[in-house]
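Hi,

Apologies if this is the wrong queue. I'm a grad student, and the batch job for Glycosyltransferase from Actinoplanes siamensis produced an output file that my downstream script rejects. I'm not sure whether the problem is my script or the file. Here is the sequence I used:
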Amino acid sequence: MTVPSRPSYRGLALAVFQLRPLTPPDQVLDGSNAVLVHILRHFAELGVRATVHHPATVGRSEPFELFPGIRVEPVRPLLTATDSGSLMADPISHASAIERIRETLGRSDRFYVHGGNLPYFGLGGAGPSIHSIHDFCATESVTSVLNFTGDRLVAVSEYIAGSLRAALDRVRRIPDGSLRVIPNGFRPADFSPRDPARLRADLGLPTDSVCLLYPHRPIADKGILAAVRVVHRLRSLLAPDVYARVRLLIPAWEAPRFGVDAPIVPPLPPEVVAYASELGVAGKLHVHRWIRVAEMAQYYSLGAATLCVGRYPEAFGNVHVESMMSGTPAIIARAGAHRTSVPEGLVRKVDPGRDDDVADHVADVVARAERVPPEVARYLADRYSHNAMLRGYEQAILDCEPQPRVGFSDADPVHAGSVLRVPPWAATLASGFYHDFTGYCTDEKFLECLPDIGSGTEVGALLRRDGIGPGDIASWLDAGLVSAH
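Support response: The file is valid. Your script probably expects a header line. Output copied below for reference.
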């Protein structure tokens, strides 16, 4: 049997844009950037030539070669700081950025937007446009998706793919072939148990410290206040000598600065410090420098447990997978993609907002000195294969052909035969019906109908119930409690 030859991409020209600054491989700060670096390295090996644009930042405004044939050319800053510290758009910077990107598009065969947050709707070249979606709650990401008229969308999880379909069905119909699901991939060589002694010393941690990891930005939605409450609760769950050694590790986020006058973000928001002081656990907080992706395996390895307990609806959320592949148990909230990214039996999960449950899990992990079994790490490496991710982006971007443009259109009107279901951004949990963007539902009428809606029910059947009218169903649709099919 003849095996079909792989297409040659040598000489293919690619234009790339992302809203975040791109750094050399040894300086990557976050998971989304790490994915882009891996993609571009793979494309360079295939002979692709690429020009990457992103907003210039302080200390990151000069062009550089990322890999052979992959050139990064920052464009003028898209944001500048005002005297009051707020951010405003600079129209000249925007115009300059558009001109630069158009010049690149004029000599490119494909246009790839990493993260999907292109602020210039309709900007594209003669070739196909492909956007990957790594976030579906930030304003720039949501508006970019809703205004998307390109050729292909890439979702980093089934959760995001389902959310995209459910949202876009309200404003336009996108062809089935225009949406691909490519989960983030991880290499065991990058994430596996390591000796953390060097990093422990570098961060100034005692050798006997019990480290709880919070490898996220220190904001409420990511779970920083919940993590502080967990540390407070552990006082009554752990033996005094063990609790005395507990430290909550918090990295100081290195926020990109788009201008010399841009405000410098403090290592830890004052409200977090005040809250920890109020609970009497300020001394348990160990704030340290931001950890580069290249050091993360060591970082996870020094932890007793990793906390992913925020309400932020992650599109994928790399941390829990990276931590578990590195041997450290993760406790995750059933919010966003975390609800389904790892099966219930393989990871410790809690309903959002259930801090006492988190503390119970942490206490159990510490008491058992629990580590992730090697077979679970292998399962994650197979499920989230790095090679499969690279091959997926290769096909989604380099093999993309132009698709018919799909403009805005009215959704099919909801009628008696329409079936209402629970949308991807919501779920029925033990603690209640949870909506990723608005929290637990308290609408009594809706909750009474939920058993029927959970299995899919026609509008007409609901309207035959006492006390349910068209206005109720319209309000549930507008609130995103249901989706119509």
